[in-house]
Amino acid sequence: MRVFLTGATGWVGSAIAPQLINAGHRVLGLARNDAAARKLKDAGVEVHRGDLEDLDSLRRGVAATDAVIHTAFIHDFANFKAVCEIEKRAIEALGSALVGSERPLLITSGTALVSPGRLASENDESVFTPADFPRVATEHAAIALAERGVRISWIRLSPSVHGEGDHGFVPMLIQIARDKGVSAFVGDGLNRWTAVHRHDAGLLYRLALEKGAPGTRYHAVDEEGIAFRDIAAVIGRRLNIPVVSKSPQDAVDHFGWFVRFAQIDCPASSKLTQERLGWKPSQPGLLAELEHSARYFQE
Question: Which of 166, 195, 234, 237 could pair with 286 in a Cys bridge, judged by C-beta atoms 3.0 to 4.6 Å apart?
């Protein structure tokens, strides 16, 4: 297949592209600037110029390909609601160009959006509304497109998609700890995150594209529930700083906008994903990687 991949130069997208190419697929990657275009060419990916706000460019990418994988997201958490609306419109544009065809669309969501406080399965719908958690609009857009006959499915990523070169939530936690001089968790720190290595996630996208069923949710989860205080403990040990508990009130000052993610309890299973697709994560777990990786703690 020729696959249109948004976010092709991103943390997850750049792990998906080689999976697709090595399996014999051709990849058309969305590039918003010259630097991104050069990066794609170096990776053996064809270049399609545009961005998430250029809806015509998205529709042209769909028209030129046999399948679509959408991983792009504007990581501006200070304007989270606005960027989630941009993504919703992008998904609607991608999907509208696929109505009436048999071409698949695979989009990206998150396990943190599903059912905090209990183990979430792939069959669970999110308990949130977009007013509660703006990125739930992604899943609502997917459901609406499925009702219009689009062959859409989606992958829920773990809060931590880790690996060498990570620039996501865990590096943010490390930087907060470094700046504050303590590595913190909230309350008893028993709230849980899921985690997956980026290379395992990249494999999952390929399998979901090749073997997935329309209307199905898949979980990119290797570790079902890592206690947040265990993540904080490794960070404190590696930085040689104290590990402390913060009250919910003090946590706001310590974590800033990140406080919601520091408190969320979002365990999730990938049992159905593994059974349906034959996906078997094989890379190191998050805590093991933090214990042994030098790059996470380079200044």
Answer: 195
